[in-house]
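Integral membrane protein: structure, please.
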Amino acid sequence: MGQWFTREIAETGRLRLFCFFVAFIAAFVFIRFSVRMIRRQARWWPGNVTPGGRHVHHVVFGLVFMCVGGVGGLAVADGSSGWAGAAAALFGAGTALVLDEFALVLHLEDVYWSEQGRLSVEVVFITVALCGLLLLGLRPLGVDDSPGGGLWHIALVLLFDLCASVVALLKGKIWMGLIGLFIGVLALIGAVRLARPDSLWARRRYPAGSRKERRAQARERRYRRPIERLGTALGDLVAGRPSAKD
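Here you go.
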């Protein structure tokens, strides 16, 4: 294990990313466990932080960790040192705390246990996936392993991949669009397939009652809904089920 870590992580310059990734997952698991214990009113678990009766959300602590870890990381010159890894880990933990309340920040109200709060879990899952791809050595748009043929050829390939990812995102294919930045064929598939019926692309380009709109809605019912139910079940298992009243 030690040799693998040295060969695949330390010697490839991914120490800080590895520390960020591990701390991010650990902090997310910890904070979700904590809020679920608080929600169950477990007597053996400390409650919310409420100095003077004001509930301090953990996004506040996350912002402090991100500031300290970010500035600390900039101050460390040696990216392979233990201090650099510690700063990256602190930044990763802070990022997890912030993204865990992403929906709260977006809506500017406490929607943590509501249906809108599911967005935070989705954002965390996407972040884990993208960081995992980076840790495996993949780079957005294939920057490090672009094919030969001159600067213009490389620029055109990168521009094509970027455009395909943007189109996939506009069509509501979030996972394909984002992961397509690393694996171009996924972005291309998302770009050429029908858009999701509630996406910006569909609202602008699929007239009401048109054949494309009907096909998009049929595809949504047949393929997308079962996948969404599976994703919802996984999110509930990891992060807890939203309150029924919300």
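Notes: The chain has a mean pLDDT of 86.
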